[in-house]
Amino acid sequence: MPHDQDYTHQLQQLMQRVGISSFKALSRSCGVSQRQLKRIRTGEIAQMRVEDLFKLSQALQVPSNELLSTFSTLELNWGTESQEPSSALQQEYQRLQAQLQQQRESLMQEFQQGSLQILESWLLQWPTAAYAAAQNPQLAAVKLLPLLRPVEQMLQQWGVEAIAPVGAEIEYDPQVHQLMEGTAATFSRVKVRYTGYRHGERLLFRAKVSPIPSAD
């Protein structure tokens, strides 16, 4: 493979498509050293490990065979000299894909099991409580509130936070509040009708509020 080829522009184009601004950022994103990335830019992609090629294809959201065809004549050389390297690469790529899928399924199972453990008491008691409430309209709803604690606990573990409790009188903030009727000026007093939620820095749902009439 000649080392006088420069594929820097092609690599930068793929990086721009996924919002990666520098080779250093690309290295951090995919876990491939900048030295290995330099090999791609100089047409030495054939010297990369299959694992690194797979990581790069995931970060750039480009199939590995497309990377090969873009950054070298590797596929063409393999096709005329021998089919064994291409076959070995394909098998390794499929193995890594299967491994990644297995890891995803394992993480999902752990997530589901953890969630079910938190919700166990609610899953067991809520259907019976709901049935009892339907059969006896005189049953005080306040008695059902403790059954919701596992759900609240799960939301806390996930980092989901309520913007404000129902019934609270707070200052209106159009960034996190949604008026149900009327109008309200920023910082005027409003009453929370439905709780909104944040997840970390992300706003999930705005709190629904109603204006509080002025005392004047």
Properties at a glance:
elongated, 53% helix, 216 residues, three-stranded antiparallel sheet, alpha+beta
Task: Kindly describe this structure.
53% of the residues lie in helices and 12% in strands. The termini are far apart. Mean pLDDT is 78; it is low at 74-85. It is built from eight helices and seven strands. It has a four-stranded mixed sheet, with no helix packed on it. Helix 7 runs antiparallel to helix 8 (149-157). By secondary structure, the protein is α+β, with helices and mostly antiparallel strands.
Mean pLDDT: 78
Largest sheet: spatial strand order? 2-4-7-3
Radius of gyration computed on alpha carbons: 28 Å
Instruction: List unreliable stretches of 5+ residues.
Output: 74-85
Total helices: the number is: 8
- Judging from the principal axes of the Cα atoms, what is the shape? elongated
How much helix is in the residues? 40-55%
Major sheet, described briefly? 4 strands, mixed
The fraction of residues assigned to DSSP E strands is: 5-15%
Secondary structure: number of strands: 7
Alpha-carbon distance between the termini?
84 Å
Order of helices and strands: HHHHHHHHEEEEEEE
Structural class: alpha+beta
